[in-house]
Amino acid sequence: GNSVTQMEGPVTLSEEAFLTINCTYTATGYPSLFWYVQYPGEGLQLLLKATKADDKGSNKGFEATYRKETTSFHLEKGSVQVSDSAVYFCALSGTYNQGGKLIFGQGTELSVKP
Amino acid sequence: EAQVTQNPRYLITVTGKKLTVTCSQNMNHEYMSWYRQDPGLGLRQIYYSMNVEVTDKGDVPEGYKVSRKEKRNFPLILESPSPNQTSLYFCASSLRQNNSPLHFGNGTRLTVT
Q: In sequence order, what are the beta bridge partners of A58?
């Protein structure tokens, strides 16, 4: 079945550092890929998505490119801020007959220090 | 405002005392789902519903029940809670399409003693 593997956290960076959070997946067919962010005490919010190979999703300075050849969807940001401190989840869509189901990675906690 | 509303936000209960966590969405979404979040395990799906009166088991359904009598509501029922159900629970909804993002509630932190 479909699955997602994320790099383990926590990740601690200084403000303005470059961020990469690795995400690889195993899937049959042509899933859509997502990054969600969870701020303390809140639910998950969609950060960005990509629906087909070579698509690049972007939002709030974050980017991720759907790489079918390496089955990856790594999250990047050129210059992180303290306000980016949160838990980040990579996810992919299930099979077609599972409707809106998403399969999540285990999450990567990011802490950005001033 | 489009949202998914869960209640309560926090709940402490004792083993065996039946409880219900409510979930409501105002976006006319067909698909609704419950997840639990545990450290190191990410989010795991408990149950989901494709539409009214259509529900199915997710990956970790044991000890839970759901119902979908109306499109907007999808309550999670724990008939006899146990300590291993202590967790953070999220309700989510979306359109019934593979590339539709899930919209999440703010979570319910449940402690079973």
A: A63
**Three-state DSSP class for A94?**
coil
Which chain B residues contact residue A102 at CB under 8 A?
A: 102
Q: How many CA atoms lie within 13 A of B7 on its CB side?
A: 4
Chain A residue numbers touching B104 (CB-CB < 8 A)? 43-45
Instruction: Tell me if A106 and B41 make a contact (CB, 8 A cut-off).
Output: yes
Residues B47, B66: Cα–Cα separation, whole Å: 7
| Confidence category of residue B95, pLDDT binned at 50, 70, 90 | confident
Write out pLDDT tens, residues A36-85: 999 988 899 999 999 889 999 999 999 999 999 999 999 999 999 999 99
Chain B contact for A79 (CB, 8 A cutoff)? no
**Segment B74-83 mean pLDDT:** 97
Tell me the DSSP string of A52-112: STT-EEEETTEEEE-BTTTTB--EEESS--GGG-EEEEEEEE--GGGTT-EEE---EEEEE
Of A43, A101, A105, the CB nearest to B90: A43
Are A106 and B40 within 8 A, CB to CB? yes
Sheet holding A62-65, edge to edge: A19-21, A75-77, A62-65, A56-59
